[in-house]
Design goal:
Blueprint (H helix, E strand, L loop, with lengths): L2 H18 L10 H14 L6 H9 L6 H13 L1 H12 L1 H5 L5 H31 L5 H25 L6
Helix pairs in contact: 1-7, 1-8, 2-5, 2-8, 3-8, 4-7, 5-7, 7-8
Length: 169
């Protein structure tokens, strides 16, 4: 993924945060639809103890400890199929055409999926090449990716809070 693509992804994800301020989901939609969206969002969320920790170390000029890499990178790579399935669901025509979510929600979910897909590929390429092949890392690109991940996570948290009717408000 190029620097331009990272910048565009970051901008798109940051702009989503503002849009999510006005999001409200009808309580008339079936709980099953809400639960399925919540599950997908939780699956694609970048946890603070995962690869983002390694990315932040690199962005700050450090090199992560080998034990941390061994602990974090394989599960990240192994989760590819599960993340892919959830991204497919969020981008699906079935969800887009469903009357159980609004067109705006459908568009936002697709944009979140697009951002996750781009960031995931960038992180996989960057970390796998740098940490297993010893290739140099562009710290500015990594720093942009960290900002994009934080914007993505904020977007996921905001829309998940609206869809998750079971969680206390």
């Amino acid at each position: 993924m190029s620097t331009v693509a990272i910048i565009e992804t970051t901008r798109m994800l940051i702009s989503l945060i503002g849009e999510l301020q006005t999001l409200s989901v009808s309580q008339n939609y079936p709980q099953k639809t809400h639960d399925r969206v919540v599950l997908a969002l939780r699956t694609i969320y970048f946890t603070s103890d995962g690869v983002i920790k390694i990315m932040e170390d690199i962005a700050n000029g450090g090199m992560p400890d080998t034990d941390v890499i061994r602990e974090v990178l394989p599960p990240f790579n192994d989760a590819e199929w599960k993340v892919h399935d959830e991204l497919k669901f969020l981008e699906s025509k079935k969800l887009q055409k469903s009357f159980n979510i609004t067109l705006k929600d459908s568009r936002i979910l697709r944009e979140i999926a697009y951002g996750k897909r781009n960031l995931r590929h960038f992180i996989q390429d960057t970390l796998n090449e740098a940490l297993t092949l010893g290739n140099d890392v562009n710290r500015e690109d990594v720093n942009l990716a960290v900002k994009a991940v934080k914007a993505l996570n904020t977007s996921i948290e905001k829309i998940e809070a609206v869809y998750n009717r079971r969680a206390p408000k």
